[in-house]
Amino acid sequence: MADKSSSNAYWAANIRLIRVLLIVWGLVSFGFGILLRPMLSGVGVGGTDLGFWFAQQGSILVFLVLIFVYAARMNKLDREHGVEE
C-alpha cells in the first residue's frame, strides 16, 4: 500500500464497516431492547417476550456476532489492500 489513494480507500472502507456495525449495535441494544420493547412484548421467545429477550440475552449474542463479523471483514479488507499481517 504505497500511494495515498489506496490508503484513503482502505480507511474509507474501514470507517464504513465500523459505521454499519455501530448502527446494528445501536439498533439491537437501544432500539429493540428499550424503544421497541413494548411492540415486541407480544412475541414469545423461550418463555418470555421478545423485547425482554433482546434486552437481556439477544443483545449480548448480537454483540458477539458483531465481533466475529468485524474480525472477518477486516481480514478480508486487509488482504484486498495488501496490508495483512
Which labels suit this protein?
elongated; membrane; 85 residues; mainly alpha; transmembrane helix; two-stranded antiparallel ribbon
Q: Could you provide a short overview of the structure?
A:
The chain has helices spanning 4-35, 37-40, 50-81, and strands at 44-45, 48-49. It is mainly alpha-helical. It has one domain.
Description:
The chain has 85 residues and is mostly helical. The chain has one domain. Helices cover 80% and strands 5% of the residues. It has a two-stranded antiparallel sheet with strand order 1-2. α1 packs antiparallel against α3. The longest helix is centred in the first third of the chain and has 32 residues. The chain is elongated, with a radius of gyration of 18 Å. The mean pLDDT is 87.
* Structural class by sheet pairing and helices: mainly alpha
Question: How many domain regions?
Answer: 1
Quote the average pLDDT. Answer: 87
3D shape: elongated
Give the H and E element order: HHEEH
Strand order of the largest sheet: 1-2
What oligomeric state is this?
A: single chain
Distance between the termini: 13 Å
Profile the largest sheet. Answer: 2 strands, antiparallel
